[in-house]
UniProtKB/TrEMBL annotation:
Cell location: Mitochondrion inner membrane
One Pfam family it belongs to: ATP-synt_A
Gene this chain is encoded by: ATP6
Alphabetized UniProt keyword annotations: ATP synthesis, CF(0), Hydrogen ion transport, Ion transport, Membrane, Mitochondrion, Mitochondrion inner membrane, Transmembrane, Transmembrane helix, Transport
Keyword Ion transport: yes
GO CC entries: mitochondrial inner membrane; proton-transporting ATP synthase complex
Name of the molecule in the record: ATP synthase subunit a
CDD domains for this protein: ATP-synt_Fo_a_6
Membrane topology note: Multi-pass membrane protein
Catalytic activity: H(+)(in) = H(+)(out)
Annotated family: Belongs to the ATPase A chain family.
Length: 227
């Protein structure tokens, strides 16, 4: 029986138990825990440098109230990067290709930023729905459009991450299948296809990291509007 290209995105099960929970817990096992020693090994030092640079880049424009989110967003960044990178390994499952999982990340965090804005500065938060200097006739229309755009934000976060990773995995599988089929028929074309596959894999590694960064960056921008 021929398998569909989309079968790779089905959540694997074993004895009726979904293994997505195992895939989600794996990143926390891979990262070393910081120690209280004065001297650390190279891996922990590199990990600490990366987290410090990331938090400085993300939270520099934010006020002090937004700095409370540093641990949460830095952990989310590492978590998403690890899930995306592990999904590029052969015979693995990528949980972030599931829209339900990405929406489970996006909706609560987006809703938390909105609630913080409504609680701390409701006038400023509601002011985003109506730009200054709007003509009187356009006020009802703009309020509706801005409200819709506000509620579309979590959907855009989840769909962007899902679509980019799904498209990349499909391209890799299509080109790998083409190289395998062309190998006995046209070896030269198959080798060129394999080179293209290698370059695409490098591109997907970059996409896996960039999409995790964009996800957290957009959340920080939403937070910046409300603190």
């Amino acid at each position: 029986m021929m398998l569909s290209f989309f079968d790779q995105f089905m959540s694997p099960t074993y004895l009726g138990i979904p293994l997505i929970a195992l895939a989600l817990s794996l990143p926390w096992v891979l990262y070393p825990k910081p120690t209280t020693r004065w001297l650390n090994n190279r891996l922990i030092t590199l990990q600490g440098w990366f987290i410090n640079r990331f938090t400085q880049q993300i939270f520099q424009p934010l006020s002090l109230g937004g700095h409370k989110w540093a641990a949460l967003l830095a952990s989310l960044m590492l978590f998403l990067i690890t899930l995306n990178m592990l999904g590029l390994l052969p015979y693995t499952f990528t949980p972030t290709t599931q829209l339900s999982l990405n929406m489970a990340f996006a909706v609560p965090l987006w809703l938390a930023t909105v609630i913080i804005g409504m609680r701390n500065q409701p006038t400023h938060a509601l002011g985003h729905l109506l730009p200054e200097g709007t003509p009187t006739l356009l006020i009802p229309v703009l309020i509706i459009i801005e409200t819709i755009s506000l509620f579309i934000r979590p959907l855009a976060l989840g769909v962007r991450l899902t679509a980019n990773l799904t498209a990349g995995h499909l391209l890799i599988q299509l080109i790998a299948t083409a190289a395998f089929v062309l190998l006995p028929l046209m070896p030269t074309v198959a080798i060129l296809t394999a080179v293209l596959l290698f370059l695409l894999t490098l591109l997907e590694v970059a996409v896996a990291m960039i999409q995790a960064y964009v996800f957290v960056l957009l959340l920080s921008l939403y937070l910046q509007e409300n603190v």
